[in-house]
Structure formats: C-alpha cells, structure tokens
Write a structure and sequence with these properties.
Oligomer: single chain
CATH topology of the largest domain: Rossmann fold
CATH superfamily of the largest domain: HAD superfamily/HAD-like
CATH class of the largest domain: Alpha Beta
Structural class: alpha/beta
Order of helices and strands: HHEEHHHHEHEHEHHEHE
Strand content: 5-15%
Number of domains: 2
Radius of gyration: 18 Å
Number of strands: 7
Length: 228
C-alpha cells in the first residue's frame, strides 16, 4: 500500500500533460518513446488480463487444450525471470516453462502475439506528440523493456499509426531501460548526445529515473490515466 501511495504521489508531482509535452519537444533533436502504456494502450485493465483473454479463446480451439492457462502463464514468466536475472526474458524463455508439447507451445505463442496486436489501441495524447515530432522531423525512437519480439511490436505500432522511427527491445538487445544499459547501448548505436535527447514514458524506474541519471531529459506520463 505504501508503495502504491508513493507511486501515485510521484505521478501527481511529476507527470506531464499533452500540452506540457508539446511545449518542450521543439528543444530536442531526438525524441524516444516507451511503447506499452505510453504510445499504445491495451484494452484490458492490467497486462496480465491478456492471459485471461487467451484462456477464453482457447476454449474455442479444437487443436489445443490447456487447463488453467492464466495461472500457468503467470507462473512460467515468474520462473523464467528467476532463471534469467541478468537479462530480459524472451517469449520463448517464458513458454519453455509451460508444460505443453512443442506444437502447442508454438500455437500458444502465436495466439499471445495475435491477441496483443488485436487489443492494442493508440494513446491519443501521446499520438499527438508523436505526430508533432514527425512534422518537426525529429529522430524518433521506440524503446521497450519487453519479452515480445520486435516484429510483433512493430505490427502493434503500425496498426496504431506509428510508422516512423527505430525500435529497440530489451529482450533482443540484452539490456534493459531499468538498469540504464539499454539507453547507453542506444546512445552508441545512434551516435546521440544526451543534451539533444528527450525520453517519454510511464514507468518511474525505467522511463524517468534511469535515463535521468544518464543525463537524458525525461518526461513522465501517468500510466493510470484512461484517455477517450
């Protein structure tokens, strides 16, 4: 409870609105965006609710039957993360911990990726910021601490109107935003100076504090706001 209250206070004190962000972007040559809960939202209350949707869809599939999929998927990710503490896990790492056949495993991974694409929708205020960045010819980056492969995340981005920029995903880069390694890696890959770089995201540790420690200008948005 204490942690949630501290998080709410941080959002209240630090999170910025669309108008406040638009006032600042002109100063920067590079603008990077977090993906989930920043440029796109999911049509679920919590990320884990995706697994409940998959479980419901499995009831209509005659070629695959997995009892208690929701619990299995949550536990599989916990085990995979415990076994791979030094790097972000991949979707394959997670599904190796689900006790099904290889054929079923591939079908479940495909269904999860398909579901993630289908339930994604643009976060309208941040889409406006992105559109302004494209008009101003900024270098645009998308940066995600995520287990989904980049080709799936690109499908999500393009479905929701984000078709310009470069994408970096922690599970493929072998580094994360939270510990700062992914930002340092991108800085070298893109030959960036921190003075001209603005990062926008919703996660206090990974999108706000971590890049700020590296000298990157950061803007926090409130992940709990639901925009219509």
């Amino acid at each position: 409870m204490l942690r949630k209250n501290a998080q709410r206070l941080a959002y209240r004190l630090c999170a910025q609105t669309e108008e406040e962000i638009l006032d600042q972007i002109e100063r920067y040559t590079t603008v990077s965006f977090d993906v989930f809960d920043t440029v796109v939202k999911r049509e679920v209350a919590e990320p884990k609710d995706v697994f409940a949707l998959i479980e419901a869809r499995l009831r209509d599939k005659s070629n695959i039957s997995v009892e208690h999929f929701y619990e299995l998927r949550v536990e599989a990710e916990r085990i995979a993360r415990k076994a791979n503490r030094r790097r972000e896990v991949t979707l394959e790492d997670i599904y190796k911990q689900v006790p099904v056949s290889n054929e079923q495993r591939l079908e479940l991974m495909r269904l999860e990726c398909q579901t993630e694409i289908e339930i994604s929708m643009p976060n309208i205020p941040i889409k406006h910021v992105y559109d302004a960045c494209t008009r101003q010819r900024k270098k645009i980056l998308f940066i995600s601490d995520m287990y989904l492969p980049s080709e799936v995340i690109w499908k999500i981005l393009r479905k929701n109107g984000y078709d310009t920029g470069r994408l970096y995903v922690s599970c493929e880069a072998g580094r994360t935003k939270r510990d700062g390694g992914l930002f340092t890696y991108i800085q070298k890959e893109e030959d960036l100076t921190v003075d001209g770089w603005l990062h926008i995201g919703d996660a206090i540790p990974g999108d706000y504090l971590s890049p700020k420690r590296l000298g990157i200008k950061t803007i926090l948005i409130d992940r709990n706001l639901r925009y219509k």
